[in-house]
Amino acid sequence: MSDQQTTYTPQEQEIVAAVVAYWKTNPKVTNVKTILAEAFTDKTNWSRISAARLRSSLKKFNLLPETLDERRDRFKLQEYSHLIKSNSEKMPGVEEFIAEHKVPVKIVGSKTRGNGLYTTEKIAKNQVIWSEEPLVFYYDDLTIWTEQVRSGQGCSYCLKPIRNVRLEASCGRATTCTARYCNRVCKTKDNAKYHDLLFHRSVEGGASEIARKLEKHCQDFNMKTALFYSYLLLRAVTSGKSGEKLLAQFKSLATVSNEVRAEYSSKGTSNQSQFDLEQTQQVDRDAFAYLEQLLQKANPEFLKTYSYEEYQNGLGAWNLNNLKDSFFLLYSHMNHSCEPNVVAQFTDREGDRSKGFTVKALANIGANEELKVTYVNPALDYFSRQEELRKFWGFICACPRCKREFKELKEKEQ
């Protein structure tokens, strides 16, 4: 009779039970190779367990965290940058802006990457490269519009709180209008037809009740993008030639359907996320119905060729390109890096975004180098940055910093 011990092939549950017992004294060990070497030393009659089988068994019971490669692959599943429509054409008016303000940059277009901003001369560290006021701006807090502006406590043009009552002005066209301007300059700049639509019940074509319903709907469902984009569109279609130019500028931005963004964000998630996606789509359609009613009163001809698909693309363009709910002519051509060489700093310390910002160099920059900003907080770790970039801009970053940090993480994982 042979003294050789009979080899036993353990069941999946037995493998998992042995690892759980091992974790009671080694709770921080998740490396598969280490577990293989240490968790089964008393199972002398077990046949050899491969790393692949151990990983599969633990994952089946949700006991093993994702590997770095698995986590990055999951992010890539939710990436939608290949669906973003990038426009290699320059935004109308941008070349004139560069020439007028003598900005040492040029725009280089690419069919795959869209536009990028490159230097035409050397830039010194801390040098202010240019200053820029927004084409369109809103404050990221919906209540500034729905409460302050509606009650006359905020300017209906620049939206900032009215602090000096001696300078404020009313529209003067309707006695029931609650809107106020912080000064006569803002009143002069405002579009009368757009103002009448949002604030006047009695003016012919007025639609203030519909506007209020849209505002309440957007506030109830936290849809600031839908409200701000709708009002950008209404301002444009009631502003004649200047409105046509604004629409052309907005349409030149990179875009993707907002439904696509939501769909890809929910990929690989729970059934609850799929349910939430369907609910979001219905809420979007309800907001669009209010916008249609407003457009019918503002510009019926425009509405004839405007569709829900275009509305979704407009929401997507807003989400991809805004900086603190503002749009800028030259800044919108800049691409991202987690190691940016420039930073945009708003110029008004009191938070008046209508005054715009300055773009300053963070390092010495050579001629013909691309200027890049960061879309996310650079203090975030690798995966936190990737999560934000994937969710809000649809891509996985592969800048030098990200490549370096992922390599370091892989070395630690080994």
Automatic annotation (TrEMBL):
InterPro entries: SET_dom, SET_dom_sf
PROSITE patterns: SET
Pfam families: SET
Annotated transmembrane regions: none
Catalytic activity: L-lysyl-[histone] + S-adenosyl-L-methionine = N(6)-methyl-L-lysyl-[histone] + S-adenosyl-L-homocysteine + H(+)
Gene3D superfamilies, per database record: 1.10.220.160, 6.10.140.2220, SET domain
Gene Ontology BP annotations: methylation; negative regulation of gene expression, epigenetic
Keyword Transport among UniProt keywords: no
Ranges of residues in domain SET: 92-376
Record's keyword terms, sorted: Methyltransferase, S-adenosyl-L-methionine, Transferase
Superkingdom classification of source: Eukaryota
Gene Ontology MF term list: histone H4K20 methyltransferase activity
Keyword Methyltransferase carried by entry: yes
Official protein name in the record: Histone-lysine N-methyltransferase SET5
